Amino acid sequence: MDNRKIAGSSDTGLLKIIAFITMTADHVGYLFFPEQIIWRIIGRISFPIFAYCAVLGYIHTRNLKKYFLRLLSFSLVSQIPYTFCFYPESIGLYPGSSLVLDAADAFSIADIQLNIGFTMMLGLWGIFGIDKRKYWHTALALLISFVPNVEYGAYGVIFMLVSYFFIFYEKAMFKSASAISLASPLFKFFISGYIDLQFFAAFAVFPISAKTDSGIKIPRWLNYGFYPAHLCVLGALNFIIK
To answer: What is the pTM of this model?
Structure first.
């Protein structure tokens, strides 16, 4: 546990509510209103906020092993609703699909993108390597983040590493979070001429940097349960509608 003063916001209750709302908007837009880009723009700030809160959790936890185990359990439990919501065909849940998985289905499941919990685990693993000066851990976490199945990939892991590195330095925190949020979409723009929506993730620096004190406390069951629960609800609605 690190008792140094945090440069950014410590109001994790408020931050998580913002992240819950914007993430839900993002997923609603993706599933039901793909032609309305505003939903996806709103959702871009959710990952940086969740990632920042995970870094704060690493800094403040009294038992790092239990923290990792909770996140691992969260990731494993969330994978089924995540797949159900975004990749239902691969598990035979759309009309016309077989409910019995064949070899081709098994292969497609192996190719399914992992949920965001695994990305945050990689980021925290990389932070552990920096914190304990066992840098090979950080190198491995970064290497694995380039696997296509990892949601947000290296961008997500690097954002968490940068957040940890500068989290105690106020001016550097704001600038570094902005820079890493912009780096990935700008790189894609120079390579392909395409403006990536992740560009709007840079706006997450405002709630992350705000010195608020809402007093909001998120119960642990809601903290870990909202993500898989909302995926189950949206996945069910998507299945019924389609």
So the answer is: 0.86
